[in-house]
């Protein structure tokens, strides 16, 4: 047998892509301690912590408004499954953390969806999980966004606009109850 045939099968690695945005990044450089555009390996039994305390957190955010430990990510495998996931836990007593539409208070945790937006304060983080097979470690791959990840101002409103918001001078019958008319009647 050749050495090629005897070589170990190459395992794919789960990778968590995270794109960071803050409106004051250019002025305050709060992401200056993060390694962007470089994959980093994290042991599966380590908890990836984000915050301003460099002695505890692997990913440092240089902002006094950020908690010492803002949030943590735990890599795990689902019971009776080969699927790997991340659990996100809010570690801040002062700031709520939002994962998509779910608000997490202090010590609340949920499974991180495959693609989601994490928000706290003015911070926006797009998280995307790329599946892998390795049980020993996972990778993080950080990116910096130059424009807001959430474009709320550009999204059309999904809330119905109440008729009372329309000027009553345009509709003199405003305030009267609707009258039902059979379509065959004229």
From TrEMBL:
Tell me the protein's name.
TRAF-interacting protein with FHA domain-containing protein A
Please name the InterPro entries in this protein's record.
FHA_dom, SMAD_FHA_dom_sf, TIFA
What region holds the FHA domain?
49-121
An annotated GO BP: positive regulation of canonical NF-kappaB signal transduction
Q: Does the keyword Cytoplasm apply?
A: yes
Superkingdom as given in the UniProt entry:
Eukaryota
Which family is annotated?
Belongs to the TIFA family.
Provide one Gene Ontology cellular component. Answer: cytoplasm
Primary location: cytoplasm
UniProt keyword terms in alphabetical order? Cytoplasm, Immunity, Innate immunity
Q: Which compartment or compartments is the protein found in?
A: Cytoplasm
